[in-house]
Design a protein that fits this description.
heterodimer; A: alpha/beta; six-stranded mixed sheet; 7 helices; 12 strands; 20% strand; globular; disordered N terminus; B: mainly beta; Immunoglobulin-like; 9 strands; 13% helix; CcO_II-like_C (chain B); EC 1.7.2.4 (chain B); Nitrous-oxide reductase (chain B); TAT_signal (chain B); EfeO_Cupredoxin (chain B)
C-alpha cells in the first residue's frame, strides 16, 4: 500500500526513546484545507481514581493532581485534553462509583486547558452500561472536528461484553459517510480495537468490524488506553497507539502469567506512568508523539 | 450497546453459546468436567486433562451473568445463572490453556481466571 507507514521505520523510531514519529501519507495531503493547521493535544488515560493499593502506587491520591499540574505547566498549552477512559477504578457500589466520578471531575476541572473531552473505560461504565458516567460526562460516543481533523470517540466498554455493538457501528458508519476517503481521522477508544493479547482479554469483541469500517479511509490513527503502557501497532494502514496509565503500570503482554499491576519501585517512583502529547504534522499527515512523565526526573 | 437486561432476554431467545448444540451431539462418551462460577472465581480454577483427550466442560454460574473464554482455542460461552453452558474441547497437546471471564462482572472481574493443564 502506497500510504502505509513503513513498519520497519516506524518501530525503529519507536525504539529510539520516548518520542515516536509517525510518518507517511504525505501524498494524500496536497491541497490542504484552509482549516487545517498544526496543533497538539494531550492524551491522559487510565487515571483509576479510587484505586488505593500503596504497594502499587503509594501516591494514589496524588498522581492525578500531579498530572493535572504537569499539563498546566506545559510551556505550550494543548488545544485540548482527551481522557481515554478508566477515569475511576471500578466499584460494585453505585453510590461510591458516583462519588469517585465526582471527585475525578473536580480534580480534572483543575486543568487550565479550556477544552477537555472524556470517554469511559470499563471500570467507569461496564457495570451499569455507562449510566453513572453519562450523568457526569454525557455521551459515551461522539465525534467532533478540530482544525481539519475529524475526531471520533468510540465506546467499547459500556457493553460488559466489551463490544462496540450494532447500533454504535451503524452510527460509526453514518459518521464516516460524512468524510472523504482522504480526510484526516483520529479515533479514540479505551480498549484496543484489534486482538492485542487475547489471553489477557486485551481486545474488543467486534473490534474487527469497527476497523473494517475505518479501513476505506486512508488517514486514520487510533489512540487508546486500557493496557497501561505504550504499544504501537498497525492494522493495514491504520496505526494504533496505546497510552501509559496515571495510576499503575501493567506488564508487557505475555511477559508473565497474569496481568497483575507492576509493583511500585521506590528507586524509580512513577516509572511507567505518564501522559502523551500528540502534535499534528499537516505537511506529512502524521503525528509526533511525546511520552511525558508525571514528575520530571 | 447491549444492556444487561437485553443480554438476558437475548440468551432466553436462544442466541447464547453458539458452540453448544453441535458439541452436545458429539459428546458421546467424552468425560464431562464440571466447573462452577461465581463472582469472582471458577471452581476448580485449575483443570487437568490428558493430552489427546477430548472433554466436555460444563460450566454453571450461581450468581450473575458472566463469561467463560478460552482464547487459545477461540472458544467462549455466556454464563447465565441456572443455565449450564457446555463447551467441547477437542484433543489437545500437552500445555496450558488459560481461561477467564470476558463479561465484566464486578470489582474482582479482572482476577477471575483459571487454567486447563494438559498433561502428557
Amino acid at each position: 500500500m502506497g500510504n502505509a507507514i513503513d513498519r520497519r521505520e516506524f518501530f525503529k523510531l519507536a525504539g529510539l526513546g520516548s518520542v515516536v514519529l509517525v510518518s507517511g501519507c504525505s501524498n494524500l495531503m496536497r491541497g490542504t484545507n484552509q482549516a487545517q493547521q498544526d496543533f497538539h493535544f494531550v492524551q491522559l488515560s487510565d487515571t483509576h481514581w479510587g484505586f488505593h493499593d500503596p504497594a502499587v502506587n503509594p501516591d494514589f491520591g496524588g498522581t492525578l493532581p500531579k498530572a493535572v499540574a504537569a499539563v498546566n505547566s506545559l510551556s505550550q498549552q494543548p488545544d485540548f485534553v482527551m481522557f481515554t477512559g478508566d477515569l475511576t477504578h471500578t466499584t460494585d457500589d453505585p453510590a461510591e462509583r458516583r462519588r469517585r466520578l465526582d471527585e475525578f471531575r473536580r480534580i480534572a476541572s483543575g486543568l487550565t486547558v479550556p477544552v477537555v473531552h472524556y470517554m469511559p473505560g470499563e471500570h467507569d461504565a461496564a457495570l451499569d452500561n455507562g449510566k453513572a458516567y453519562s450523568e457526569f460526562f454525557g455521551a459515551t460516543h461522539y465525534s467532533f472536528d478540530h482544525k481539519g481533523v475529524h475526531f471520533i470517540v468510540l465506546d467499547n466498554v459500556s457493553d460488559p461484553t466489551a463490544a462496540v455493538g450494532d447500533p454504535q457501528l451503524q452510527w460509526l458508519k453514518d459518521d464516516l459517510a460524512t468524510q472523504r476517503p482522504d480526510s484526516r481521522i483520529v479515533v479514540f477508544t479505551h480498549r484496543p480495537l484489534f486482538d492485542l493479547y487475547p489471553r489477557w482479554d486485551w481486545a474488543t469483541r467486534d473490534g474487527d468490524r469497527a476497523i473494517a469500517l475505518l479501513m476505506p479511509y486512508n488517514n486514520v490513527t487510533v489512540f487508546y488506553g486500557h493496557i497501561h503502557q505504550e504499544n504501537h501497532h498497525m492494522t493495514g494502514h491504520i496505526a494504533h497507539h496505546s497510552a501509559h496509565s496515571l495510576m499503575f503500570a501493567l506488564p508487557a503482554p505475555g511477559s508473565q502469567p497474569k496481568r497483575t499491576p507492576v509493583a511500585w519501585d521506590a528507586s524509580a517512583p512513577y516509572r511507567g506512568l505518564g501522559y502523551r502529547r500528540v502534535r499534528t504534522e499537516q505537511a506529512r499527515a502524521g503525528y509526533t508523539l511525546a511520552e511525558l512523565p508525571v514528575v520530571k526526573g | 450497546m447491549i444492556s444487561r437486561r437485553q443480554f438476558l432476554i437475548g440468551l432466553g431467545g436462544g442466541m447464547a453459546i453458539a458452540a453448544t448444540t453441535p458439541l452436545l451431539m458429539a459428546a458421546g462418551s467424552e468425560r464431562v468436567i464440571h466447573i462452577t462460577a461465581r463472582r469472582f472465581e471458577y471452581t476448580p480454577s485449575t483443570v487437568t486433562i490428558a493430552a489427546g483427550e477430548a472433554v466436555i466442560l460444563e460450566i454453571l454460574v450461581s450468581d450473575v451473568v458472566m463469561g467463560f473464554n478460552l482464547p487459545d482455542l477461540k472458544l467462549r460461552a455466556d454464563l447465565v445463572p441456572g443455565q449450564p453452558a457446555r463447551l467441547r474441547l477437542p484433543p489437545q497437546p500437552a500445555g496450558e490453556l488459560p481461561f477467564f471471564c470476558d463479561v465484566f462482572c464486578g470489582s474482582g472481574h479482572e482476577n477471575m481466571n483459571g487454567v486447563i493443564k494438559v498433561v502428557a
